[in-house]
Amino acid sequence: MLDSVxxxxxxxxxxxxxxxxxxxxxxxxxxxxxxxxxxxxxxxDLRAFAYGGTLKHLSPEDVITFCEDIIGLxxxxxxxALEVLFMYTFQDDEKFKLCRNEFQRILEIPGILCxxxxxxxxxxxxxxxxxxxxxxxxEMNNEFAINISKEIVRAFTQEKFMVGLISDLExxxxxxxxxxxxxTWHIFSDALLSDDRSSYVDTLFRPDNSAKYYSEGVLSxxxxxFLIQWCNENIEKAPVILAELVPLFIKDDETHSFHPIAKSLxxxxxxxxxxQSAIDSNMWSFLSFGSxxxxxxxxxxxxxxxxxDNNPKLSMWCAKMIxxxxxxxxxxxxxxxxxxxxxx
Length: 344
Prior knowledge:
This protein has helices spanning 2-7, 15-21, 26-37, 60-71, 78-88, 93-107, 112-116, 121-135, 142-155, 166-178, 181-193, 224-233, 238-245, 260-269, 273-283, 293-304, 312-340, and strands at 249-252, 255-258. Strands 1-2 form a two-stranded antiparallel ribbon. The protein is 59% helix and 2% strand. The chain is mainly alpha-helical and 344 residues long.
């Protein structure tokens, strides 16, 4: 019956729905692939096979073949294939184990992140979860970690700014830095130290600061000793880069202090004007709603905790920052008074 439907110019539009309603066999999936090749359907239409347990009766080998056929239709088939494989192995460790190599093959397709950006959040979720599952598998996979790191750098080293991917990639980068640091950090380090003006790799490492909370950012996955060593090995550029990207503050109980990484950076390189300037820029980069006064007060609290008695240059810089923050507090209070009386 399905052969007749597929060949009928009026009925072929029902072929995918009918195939999903039965327990399709390998030849049934091949029939649908042929219809896509003829332009009767597109690759996204094949996402229907991911749901309803349509393929659960098939062997991993048959599903892998189907996914390979989907990808063979062109780059638009990458994420439909990943979705089919993702749902086939969902909450099934044994199937995932048998399909692990196919997951890796799909996720290592060159340019996959460039295909991901304009697609749905569902695709981003499948990408993130699949990568994390491979990275966290019981066996270390250094080769995959290296290839994913290179793909991330490639995607963020082009004219098109992939801003939509930053939050999706954060969990991936955290694993790459925490579990695979020794084989991946040099890839990100080279990108951060590069003079390539088309690179936006640094945006992946910036903490998401707001006036209400402090984000530690992905660099918190690395120890302060490791990052200070990186700075010493790249003494000209790295301290400034780290000052721009480091999470600056943390909250302990009800008090605020400099983050351990920021504190180590300040004590080690805080005498340098370029590092001071980068930290200043980092401090003023935050989102706020309403009065900024509480945020400035938290910054002053953290600065006052720094031990600067034996470092005159650092002491002068801290005094300068506190003075500027107090001036901003006075300005904010003035604006608030003006709003109260209706001037603003």
